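Recap quiz, item 2
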Amino acid sequence: MENLIALLIAAPLLGAVVLLCGGRRLDKTGHWLGTLLAAVSFGIGVVLFADMLGRGADDRTLTQNLYTWIPVEGFQADMAFQLDQLSMTFVLLISGVGTLIHVYSIGYMEHDERRRRFFGYLNLFVAAMLLLVLADNYLLLYFGWEGVGLASYLLIGFWQHKPSAATAAKKAFLVNRVGDMGLSIAIMLMFTTFGTFAFGPVFGAVGEASEGKLTAIGLMLLLAACGKSAQVPLQSWLGDAMEGPTPVSALIHAATMVTAGVYLIVRSAAVFNGAPDAQLVVTVVGAVTLLFGAIVGCAKDDIKKALAGSTMSQIGYMILAAGLGPIGYVFAIMHLVTHGFFKAGLFLGAGSVMHGMNDEVDMRKYGGLRKYMPVTFVTFGLGYLAIIGFPGLSGFFSKDMIIEAAFAKGGTEGWILGGVTLLGAGITAFYMTRVMLLTFFGEKRWQPTASDSGSAAGSGHEPHPHESPKSMTVPMVILAFGSVFAGAFFEIGERFLKWLEPVTGYSHGNPPVSAMTVTAATMVMLLVGVGIAWAMYGKRPVPVVAPRGSFLTRAARRDLYQDDFNHVVLVRGGEHLTRSLVYVDHSLVDGVVNGTAASVGGLSGRLRKLQNGYARSYAVSMFGGTAILIAATLLMRAV
Amino acid sequence: MNFPLLTVTAAVPAVGAILTAAVPAARRTAAKWLALFFSLATLALAVLVAVRFEPGGDRYQLTESRAWIPDFGVRYELGVDGIGVVLIGLTALLIPFVIAAGWHDADPLETSSKRWRPTQGFFALILMVEAMVIISFEATDVFLFYIFFEAMLIPMYFLIGGFGDRAHLGSDENAAAQRSYAAVKFLLYNLVGGLIMLAAVIGLYVVAGNFSLQEITAARAAGTLDMATNTERLLFLGFFFAFAVKAPLWPLHTWLPNAMGESTAPVAVLITAVVDKVGTFAMLRFCLGLFPDASKWATPVILVLALISIVYGALVAVGQRDIKRLVAYASISHFGFIILGIFAMTSQGQSGATLYMVNHGLSTAALMLVAGFLISRRGSRLIADYGGVQKVAPVLAGTFLIGGLATLSLPGLAPFVSEFLVLVGTFARYPVVGIVATVGIVLAALYTLVLYQRTMTGPVKEEVRTMPDLRLREVLVVAPLIALLIGLGVYPKVLTDIVNPAVEHTMSDVKQTDPKPEVAVEAKNGEEAK
Amino acid sequence: MNPVNYLYLAALLFTIGATGVLIRKNAIVLFMCVELMLNACNLAFVAFSRMHGNLDGQIIAFFTMVVAAAEVVVGLAIIVSLFRTRHSASVDDASLMKL
């Protein structure tokens, strides 16, 4: 059975290779091949899942060692996989949602002449992401980690003819690289501390390492997680990443890749459990991002960017939960899974809306779409209810658990974190209601003129909103189904907790308030959020051109000036630095050498003058020289 | 004595060079095929060397030894260790690609018929360089090594100065002046380095009484050959200076951007991927082997210089406007990593550095040759003259991207393995240095992606609109390189198995052992293995 | 007569020759001055030979004469060919060898 693990990765990898090297003759069939191979991977995942359920809770881990990847004295990296409950959860999420999004893309990318390549990249992503979650050591995880970064780069920049897309892709890769630096330093630290970086041996030896070392490793892992999961301070790429085609945003920048940071932290639970300081930083990062993303999400008029802010914020929840330690690990993953459903569904819905609106992304130019796109409306609506935590839906359960866990952390810390998560729930309700109202309710506000932010495809035409084809709506329906029922399914009988507990461990904590109180408070926040949104966007008509807004709104529109800060400090500063270094290289480093050459040349120019061609002057120098020699000889004699 | 395989491996390209040069000018194409044939024959011999080499056996294998100048104790001594084997393999592997990629680079120009371009000379010189590089990797006699280390400059000088980049040819006299400036600069830098090394070589003879690497190393290790501390340090510096110029290490690097910028792309590959490797190879073999104590003494300074190379090279690369100069500065950054790995003096660092030499050769060859194809299409080296190439020539753009990704050490491609080993090896002994070097991976991503974005993406430029995609010959050049990059990235074991024993020998030369991890988990590892 | 006087004479002749080489322009005169210097040396050699009482100096004087003869042959040929091309025997006109 363990031999199937490699096949999980091999299937989409094969797809990527065939589609990318296959050339034009695969243009007609390539997307089917890509979808099929993603589905094969999901099928294998289900088989392995069934097999895993058939075994006892302690006997569920499968390993497969293919070969030694990098064998050097004292340094062993294996090409080895490990499939436990945590990996299994991700495998099913990645291949499942991945397959759905492949199906969706068949319709969404129908008119793109480079559709074959798009599917190649998608398959590449699925393969790399599976490698990431199946690796049994950190270096192989790093392989997958950068692999998804590459796929993300290629897909964000898929419409490369748009400079903004190319820039966004580059930015995403670079910011991620900063995070990757953290991961590689973490691996190096593990190597010098434990002599290995395979999961088993490292986690086994954690008890013997000093807390300082563990804290350092933990913080470096957190840096990596921040990059991949768009957490403050490395969050700036996610908003721009929305330049990619919408299925990409759904799969990579909502459901799977951006959650890799959460996976990394939960996977490294043993390290973090031994480093309370690192955990504290993790929770702080999670809490800050939670609010940051939520605030940004409130102000964006671009539907995808609003959703991106929301993604950031939700991942903030997960990171916060993961930072809580054993109290939160399980709920972080649970929220991750339910978020995978509803956020992917929301993005696909947004894609469907854009598909019907000539790729218009400005929500102020939507309005009243519920009549034109009923399926999209219903599925998007269910996703909306799930994310704001409407009782009974997925988000309700998973988010509620995180808020409870935050309070259960205890002490002042617990109160602050709990408060932040509660506040976040309220803001979530606000911005999602805003998206919902702007898009599907109210008057229709679309105009014949094409917006400057949209692609040139539909310039000058009045949009004719229409429902999307079956290949797009069916995945949306399935995801909506997941958004509604997954949470309840996981929560009944604490199924999810029992499933993951053997891997991540669990402790109940000591909540200062009862679960009912927390739920009630959440409901109040939810109602307040929805109410304010209704008052602002539901009751009165929405202007097509965004009003100037308060200082906070303007700041949030500009991602709280974080990008401007980056631009001034990093981009400008970097430009000055490189320019001056180029100058230094040319005039100083090279100049010293050229200067030496020039002075030697100058000296020889002087000496050349002595060679005037007159026999007499040569004779004078000869006589002079002889005279000096003789004089010197005589002098030496005398002395 | 058995069949002199090493001599033959070096002699075949030399003979090929003479025969190629002798082909009459009218039969240009024959000369090209002849050169390609000889380069492939050399490759076959190099493969044979690798097959005959036993990784677990003696340190130097396939040895040959003959008296040469008995009065000075100079012997014709050849022998290869694992490091030599892989580098001979790299050289022999890259030359056919260089020849195939430069197939039309030396054709007579229709535009300026005044200029006489000896086509067959171009290929003969390339083979000559190959022969000299191979024998440098084989020589275990310091004097023999020195001769070919220096002699290499002559054909390289003519390749740089005589066969410039077509992107600038025929435009004006300025291009010719630039080219000859670059060639002279290359020559002068390396001659000065060589001169200082010559003094050190003579000094070594005075101290040791012979030139045999094996004898001196053995005597040093056994303690029978004492050198005064200062003598050893001076001799070390003499050798190191020459190698640091060749490698090149900051601040001795400025000849490389000129040389790579002005020469044709295949010659640029020859410089950076093949010839420069002799410098880093010689640091590993001669500096560490002959002067272990002085090497340790100089390590802090060298590490700092290597770090500067890494960061500085990458930053200056970001600011370049010329594609080829950008690649040159990127190479300077990478050479910093190689030198870092060598002088970190850990098994991982040195294995990584050796792998890095091979992988950097492959990745730079891929990136530079594709860049050369790109430049030959548009006739300009300036990044700003391109844009949107991806749309018109997707295969070209794709291969360029893969070359770029290899340059930024993406996992799955060969350079990642070596770069990570170097970083880990450095970190294990010098954590701060390791962390600063890690910044290099971010900067590598920056210059590569900026280059890709500016040339390949965005709106299609008017001049680029009719650009043809890669031709069959060009695909045949790039595809095997990419396959190798991926193959060695996923399964580097083929190389590490050859390299590891040699690294252990070097480690014992310098009497260093790897730092031990704080927490021993060996036992648990053992359990897992079972 | 005291042989030292011959040495004084030789020195005087040599000085005259040297001065002539340095200040005159005509190639023929120059040439004669060089000969004068050579012969001054010869005189010194012979004088030394006499003073030391062996024949070494005289033998070297013969060598010098042979060299001088050869020099005259080659030098005069050069001067003649120079005069043919340049219509002047001035050495200052023949400064083409300068860098």
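The two ends of chain B are 44 Å apart (CA to CA).
Chains B and C do not touch (no CB pair under 8 Å).
End of item.
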